[in-house]
Specification:
single chain; 110 residues; alpha+beta; three-stranded antiparallel beta sheet; elongated; transcription regulation; DNA-binding
């Protein structure tokens, strides 16, 4: 096993979605399933570039491909994003409390 394979195997979900083009693809697929050509057109990336990103997203379980005739249709798989949501939840609560305190302070100043 070479270093590139080891790194790829260890890539976690945070690393996968840290790449802006992959987030853009995820956002696009959130609207509806898409073909590779539709993703290429939307992202303005090359077809090989999109294919590399889709491979990483597939390996992370974020997308799945269904073959229809000659086309591969990519679908978003949202369940792995639950890991991100679980990690963010304590920060969401933290900021909610801070914003509530700010709102109260601003109301008192009026």
């Amino acid at each position: 096993m070479n270093v590139a394979q080891t790194k790829k195997e260890k890539m976690n979900l945070f690393e996968v979605i840290a790449e802006p083009n992959r987030r853009k693809i995820i956002d696009f697929l959130r609207i509806s399933p898409r073909t590779v050509n539709e993703i290429v057109e939307f992202s303005k990336l090359s077809q090989p570039g999109v294919s590399k990103h889709l491979k990483v997203l597939r390996e992370a379980g974020l997308v799945k491909s269904i073959k229809e005739s000659q086309k591969h249709i990519y679908h978003l798989q949202g369940l792995p994003l639950k890991e991100i949501d679980n990690w963010i939840e304590p920060y969401r609560k933290y900021w909610s409390k801070k914003l509530d305190a700010l709102e109260q302070l601003l109301d008192e100043e009026e």
